[in-house]
Amino acid sequence: MKKSLKLLVANRGEIALRVLRTCREMGIPTVAVYTDVDELALHVSYADEAVALGERNGYLDIDKLLQAARQSSATAIHPGYGFLAENAGFAQAVEEAGLTFIGPRSETIALLGDKLASRQVASECGLPVLPGSSSPLPPELPLEMARQVRYPVLVKAAAGGGGRGIRLATCAEELPEVIAAARQEALAAFGDDKVFLESMVQQARHIEVQILGDGRGNVLCLVERECSIQRRLQKLIEETPAAGLPESIRTQLYDAAFRLGHQLNYRGLGTVEFLLDAQNEFHFIEVNPRIQVEHPVTEMVTGMDLVKEQLLVALGAPLRMLQDQVELRGAAIEARVLAEDPAQDFLPSTGKISFLKEAGGPGIRIDSAIYQGLQVGADYDSLLAKIIAWGENRPTAIRCMRRALDEFQIGGLATDLEFLKQIINSPRFRAGNITTTYLEEFSPQEAQPESELERAVALAAALYVNEQHARKPTPEPNHLDLWQRTAWQEQMQAKF
After folding, report:
1. Which listed residue, 108, 324, 440, 479, has the most CB atoms within 10 A of its CB?
2. Are strands 383-391 and 355-357 parallel, antiparallel or unpaired?
3. What residues are labeled active site?
4. CATH fold label, 7-102
5. Which CATH number is 205-452 given?
6. The CATH number of domain 131-199 is 3.40.50.11220
């Protein structure tokens, strides 16, 4: 590692704090940046230095960020997620300034940021892509062309990610208005109003595969994540492993993600996203060339520090392990605590945090940057905290998450904590019967306490795992142990 390394984190909130913590463990000097509304934010005081950016859009100002790097003598920049994390122009500017960008190469980000181009690359790698337009839609789509489209259909921004710039059209008459709305959101979010059409998968599951590459042709597939519980196409609850996913499909998803990563000579962290239909046939969606909000669930089952791995490969180090050395253990679930009111269609809420009690105990990890007395405004994303629960199996992880949600308390503003409890307590969630339309169909009345049977199955599974570990004092890294345990649990439930 370069002795002169000094890292500027071009972000805020929990992800800035997350990166800063790894840097402190690695002995890397750090620089935080902040806008006027974030002057009292935790990441500002946690870093070794802090540089003011001025007004609220400072995190999107490339010139100000580069000036902050020069002012502080930073030698590398970590973009986090959101803001400029997937902006190829920012990555290129960092590179041209002689600094190290902690992420993929700028040309890789540019390619993957164009969803039409990434669909083409995926297709060339043999990945199944959804039917859709091969070029951006014209400014005005003729009605006769609209009538030839198979509905329902998604209108998607060609640039960006995070569920923005995506709209659903159910008929030809809706399409012009939907295209206009998608264009407007895409332009506001990404500075690019190009959109295209893509077939919609009914009753789909949103499954993604975490990859890590070193830019030397080496790529790891770490684990898949189930991300189907979404509101407004943005994730609310994520977990790994994906419940009930056939091993043959898991293998195919890993193989597809590996082939794409290898084709791109990928460097850094990335997430290859897929949709699975009711027949378990999968389709490529996109690649997110950054660390993701839900990365902690992967860390919990692999024991890896993904930020550390990001830093190492960005600085030129090769991958530190082979695929068969990736050890997976247990199951993990992440719930996003939002300053939003689910009863008001997830309307953002603001206010001063008057009371805060975070969850803790075995199996619980909290990623947040909030504190009692913090003034939560509407300037940025509504994410307050992430609760991550780990257990030796899915039922145990669910029980751990239920305990954490009961413990976690925030006063002074509306949050989705109670709504998250209702989801975790629903029989459908506990059974793993999850699709992207889950929240549209969900009713809080579904929530039920855990049954005696479920507790018995979870206990039996834990005893079985302990027995197996007792027989193998030195467990060998093995993908199958985890998946076999999950299958056993499902078989046990089916018998009763």
Report:
1. 108
2. unpaired
3. 290
4. Rossmann fold (3.40.50)
5. 3.30.470.20
6. no
